[in-house]
Specification:
Blueprint (H helix, E strand, L loop, with lengths): L7 H9 L19 H17 L8 E5 L6 H8 L4 E5 L7 H16 L29 H7 L2 H12 L8 E4 L13 E7 L8 H11 E12 L17 H8 L11 H10 L2 E10 L18 H5 E10 L7
Parallel strand pairs: 1-2, 1-4, 2-3, 4-5
Antiparallel strand pairs: 5-7, 6-7
Helix pairs in contact: 1-8, 2-3, 2-4, 3-4, 4-6
Length: 322
């Protein structure tokens, strides 16, 4: 480990979390989902790229891993026509009043057929799109008229208040890693935004996804492989030996799993998924191969320059879940 790479503040904070009560301070979700425009942008980016990758019909049942501080992205899915939304998190963050405010703004965005907030407003949000015009080819007028009906919007608002109740359109739980969490083969589109890099049990997660997804469904995951301020350069977290990383992680509920792009491609194949589409963002590697910690010596050249990726995949007909 090189001194120029070590973020001392992160190390000291990680060590401090072994003091009772300190780790709880870290247990907050992502603040971006408090913005309705951010949630609108994220949902439409996943939806537009899913149709570009072969999705034929608008998803009726959607699931999200790691919604964060609000259920806004899932609420955007409901407002645009989905009938059921499953939200799975490690720590429960979303609050009813916050979700009600986000929902009201989302309804106006869809009523106005607002363009998708793009790179100027959200320069860090991936994936990029060739056009940020409202996607009328995906969300036609007939569908939107039905989706924005007064009775239907009232049902969504009631579901925000009464999550998990009988008849609610929203199922929100924290034990999403349990493969019995939801009915098998029931999800049309399962998505996440900058979440899978934080999941400790990736093999178990991909197995669960394969059980949940419909035979004609799709998964769509935007993954950020950067160090998240734990190192001096974007891919410097791959320099850390396991002991150093355990100290940086401390007792936080989550940090990074440090798994590269190739791990996700392997897990897709092992769990009966076929890659359907996506995009990678390439950044110059700022570390030499000889600087990699021993557990990361296997990283491919593509791994070393892939700083983020959108991965979309469909179940392979011959890869049925066990």
């Amino acid at each position: 480990m090189r001194a120029r790479n070590l973020k001392v503040g992160q190390l000291l904070y990680g060590i401090s979390t072994f003091i009772p009560g300190v780790a709880a301070v870290f247990g907050r979700g992502g603040g971006d989902t408090q913005s309705a425009r951010y949630c609108y942008s994220v949902w439409l980016r996943h939806l537009v790229t899913a149709f570009a990758s072969g999705m034929k019909t608008h998803p009726r049942v959607v699931a999200e891993l790691g919604p964060g501080d609000s259920l806004g992205v899932g609420l955007a899915a409901l407002v645009s026509g989905a009938e059921r939304y499953h939200a799975f998190d490690v720590v429960r963050h979303a609050q009813v009043k916050r979700n009600q405010a986000v929902l009201a703004e989302l309804i106006e965005l869809f009523r106005n057929r607002a363009d998708i907030p793009g790179e100027t407003e959200f320069p860090e949000v991936q994936p990029l799109l060739p056009s940020y015009a409202f996607p009328r080819h995906v969300l036609g007028e007939e569908q939107l008229a039905a989706a924005l009906g007064a009775d239907r919007l009232a049902r969504i608002a009631d579901s925000v208040t009464n999550q998990n109740a009988a008849g609610s359109m929203i199922d929100y739980r924290t034990r999403w890693f349990d493969d019995q969490a939801i009915e098998r083969a029931s999800i049309d589109l399962l998505f996440s935004q900058a979440v899978l890099e934080h999941v400790d049990d990736l093999p178990g997660s991909y197995r669960a996804m394969r059980l949940w997804i419909k035979p004609d469904g799709m998964i769509s995951h935007q993954i950020d492989f950067r160090c998240h301020n734990t190192a001096g350069v974007w891919n410097g977290h791959w320099r850390y030996a396991d002991l150093t990383w355990r100290l940086i992680r401390g007792r936080r509920s989550y940090l990074l799993n440090r798994e590269p792009y190739s791990t996700h491609l392997r897990l897709l194949a092992e769990n009966g998924f076929t890659f359907a589409g996506g995009a990678t963002v390439r950044s110059d590697s700022l570390i030499e191969r000889g600087e990699l910690a021993s557990r990361f010596r296997h990283l491919t050249e593509q791994d070393l320059i892939t700083s983020s990726a959108l991965i979309q995949a469909v179940p392979h007909p011959a890869g049925a879940a066990a």
